[in-house]
Amino acid sequence: MAIMDEISEVLLTADDIAKRVKELGEEITRDYEGRDLVVIGILKGAIPFMADLIREIKVPLEYDLIAVSSYGASTRSSGIVQIRKDLDTSIEEKHVLIVEDVVDTGLTLKYLCENLRSRHPASLRVCTLLDKPSRREVEIVPEYNGFVIPDRFVVGYGLDYAGRYRQFPFVGVLKPEVYQK
Ligand code: IMP
Ligand code: MG
Question: pLDDT per residue over 34-55, tens digit each?
Fold first, then answer.
């Protein structure tokens, strides 16, 4: 069966995403004018979003990647966060923008923001492609937010279920029977 057949609904088309990513890039460019930026992508989900977003940001920037443990193969957060691959570079005195695919319970970002703040960056902000505020368990308010979405488990454009579906150029809803098996 083709992987497309496992999608019940497309929530955001590739065009919707491209348009919004351009707007976010313009907003970030305005806000960071005159400053150098370090963009930190959270592996693996943020890769397609970060790759598109940085090309819409017109201030000088470096990017780095960090990997944290999250759900494993499940659709629920364990609440236990671990750094699996740390940054290569120091962020001390740097303006840092964390790029994430989706903020759900907020547990991952709360942990990561606290960890990165202890390294004394000049500033620290969060840019997420998707936000599910109805699912929040801890207070995290991303400064930049692509789309607010309802409490649905979505895949595509970096978002996975059990490591799959990340390559879709759109964001879609997985048929429940795929993960209820
Ligand atoms: P949080 O710690 O609960 O905010 O979860 C954040 C992480 O959970 C994200 O980086 C994703 O890896 C994963 N996640 C949350 N919701 C979804 C979803 O709808 N689809 C795919 N991954 C998700
Ligand atoms: Mg994930």
Answer: 998 999 999 999 999 999 999 9
Going from the Cα of 34 to the center of ligand 1, the distance in angstroms, rounded, reads: 33
- How much is the pLDDT for 181? 65
Q: State if residue 40 touches ligand 1 by the CB under 6 angstroms criterion.
A: no
**pTM summary value:** 0.94
- Write the single-letter amino acid at 168: F
Domains of the chain with bracketed CATH: 14-152 (3.40.50.2020)
Strands 83-85 and 61-68: antiparallel
What pLDDT does 4 receive?
A: 82
Q: How far apart are CA 57 and CA 104, in angstroms?
A: 25
Of 52, 101, 104, 131, the catalytic one is 104
Calpha distance 161→66 (Å, rounded): 20
Which residue shows structure tokens 């607010």? 148
